[in-house]
Amino acid sequence: MGRFLQSGVIAMACLPALSASAAREVTTVPACTAESTLPPVEAQDCGDRELASYTAMLSEEIVRGSEDELVRFGFDDRARVSAVCVDERTGRDPWQARKRIADRLIEMREIPVGPRCVAGRRIDFNRYEAKLAETKRARNWCGLVTGQRMKALARCEKFSSDWILYDRIGVTRPYLYVKADGAQTPAAETLMRCERSARSFEDQSRCIEADGFELLVPPPR
C-alpha cells in the first residue's frame, strides 16, 4: 500500500478503484513517518514549467485550505501518486488537515500522473509555512533564546529546539533554519555560538548550516 500508509486509511494509489463503500471508510490520511524513512524529494532535472503546473494542480485540488500544514505526496516508479501524508510534528492543526485532505481525495477520485522526474520520489508542500506555524505555537509554551536578529527555542519538554528564526534586514518575514534529521546540536546552542563567532548574515548563515540546519527562505505571497 505504500511507504506513507497506515492500516485503516486509503492510499492515493487506490483512488481510481474506490467503491462507494470503500469511500465511506476513509476518515483521514496518515501522519507522516520520520523524514529519513521517506523517499527523496523531487529531482532537480524536472522542467520548471512542467513541474510547476503539476504542483499547482495538486495545491489547488488537494492541499488548498491546509496551507499551514506540511503535506507530502509520494510517487511510484511510474510517477503515479501512491501515497499522501500530513506531518503531525509541524503546522497549526494537522489533524484537521488529515481529515480535510481525505475528503478532497474522495471527491477527486483520480489524480493525473506526475512528470517522469518525480518517479520514486516525493513532493513536499508548505515546508516554510508549516514550520513557521509550529514556531508560533512553541513560543506560547516555551521560553526563547534571543540574539540580535535571531531567535531559538530554549530547553522545553513540549517542543524540540530544532529551528532558528532570523530577522534579516529588508525582509518582511523571518528566514527559517530547520535542523535536519541526525543533527545533534540544539538550535539554542547554535544560535549562541554563531552570534558570537560571526557578524554578517552570510557568515552567520554558513555557521548555522554547518551545524546541520537547512535554510528555508520565505516564499512569495
Q: What does the model show?
A:
By secondary structure, the chain is an alpha+beta fold. The chain has helices at residues 20-25, 48-63, 94-108, 127-141, 187-197, 201-210, and strands spanning 71-75, 81-86, 122-125, 144-146, 150-153, 163-166, 175-179, 213-216. It has two domains: 12-125, no CATH class; 130-216, no CATH class. The protein has six helices and eight strands. The strands form two sheets. It has a five-stranded antiparallel beta sheet, sandwiched between helices. Strands 2-1-3 form a three-stranded antiparallel beta sheet.
Secondary structure: elements and pairs:
Blueprint: H1 20-25, H2 48-63, E1 71-75, E2 81-86, H3 94-108, E3 122-125, H4 127-141, E4 144-146, E5 150-153, E6 163-166, E7 175-179, H5 187-197, H6 201-210, E8 213-216
Antiparallel strand pairs: 1-2, 1-3, 4-5, 5-6, 6-7, 7-8
